[in-house]
Amino acid sequence: MKTTSVSDSMITSIKRGINAILSPLDLQITRIYPNQACTLQWLEEAKQAGMEINEFIEKDQLKPALRELEKLVFPRISATSRICELGPGSGCYTRHLNNKISQGEFHIVDIDTFAIEFLKSYLPNNPATHFHLNSGTSLPFESDGWLDLGFCTSMFTGVNLTYFYRYLQEFSRVLKPGGFFVFDHFDISTDAGWKVLIENMAKKDPVYAYNYHSTETIDKVVSLLGFKIVDRYPTIRGSVFITAQKL
Ligand SMILES: C[S@@+](CC[C@H](N)C(=O)[O-])C[C@H]1O[C@@H](n2cnc3c(N)ncnc32)[C@H](O)[C@@H]1O
């Protein structure tokens, strides 16, 4: 912990010094975050706001994590279930899932080393929880047909349809028949999804990584890959949660 804060303040001082030199040239240096690595950036923003990381994310990004899990996930699992969260980031939802699964298996999968290492120390120890750094296009499980539920939030809102398709194929492979995949996306066919696009583009610095898909597109891929949609739940941040059941 101490090491991190020392190196953070060193980086800030170096940045300030170099920027002071570059300023007359109208140039500045800025920190580059690895692709999609939101967790480090969010930790810094939470620190600046003086808040616990996931209390900050819940407030800043309108994510009532426990309420959404109680509505969408907890009725479909028990303490002995085998579940997987893809793209947990700072663990806003993960912390509640980690409490829930005490005797089954909870697999946490992310492409970002920083997120995985952060969660290993952030989450209370749970022998049922397993951490996996993945390739970014596959689930790190060899066996098929054993998972009860997959969960993924705010990840398909920021990747293109190819990744969505690939991960649907992967969840279709590892889920049991009758198992569920719960995920959210920006549905551009809905008023809420459209509003996200318009409001984002009205910002001084829009988020260019956002991806928006139509209801028809998502439904087509979900159905093609062996699922049926059993629930749609609009979130307060403009995305919609889909609960897809493996046939
Ligand atoms: C915007 S964050 C969302 C974090 C968390 N689910 C939440 O709702 O607060 C997206 C997360 O997905 C991960 N991610 C992005 N692309 C990925 C990919 N192709 N495969 C695995 N993880 C990915 C990122 O590293 C990050 O942790």
Structural account:
- There is one protein chain.
- The chain has 247 residues and is an alpha/beta fold.
- It folds into two domains: 1-31; 62-246, Vaccinia Virus protein VP39 (Rossmann fold), CATH 3.40.50.150.
- The protein contains nine helices and eight strands.
- Strands 1, 2, 3, 4, 5, 6, 7 and 8 form an eight-stranded mixed beta sheet that branches.
- Helix 2 crosses helix 3 (53-60).
- The longest helix has 21 residues, at 2-22.
- Residues 1-5 have low confidence and may be disordered.
- Bound molecules: S-adenosylmethionine (SAM).
- S-adenosylmethionine (SAM) binds next to helix 2.
General form: globular
Low-confidence stretches: 1-5
| DSSP summary, beta strand count | 8
Structural domain tally: 2
Under CATH at level 1, the class of the largest domain stands as: Alpha Beta
CATH fold-level topology of the largest domain = Rossmann fold
Biggest sheet features: 8 strands, mixed
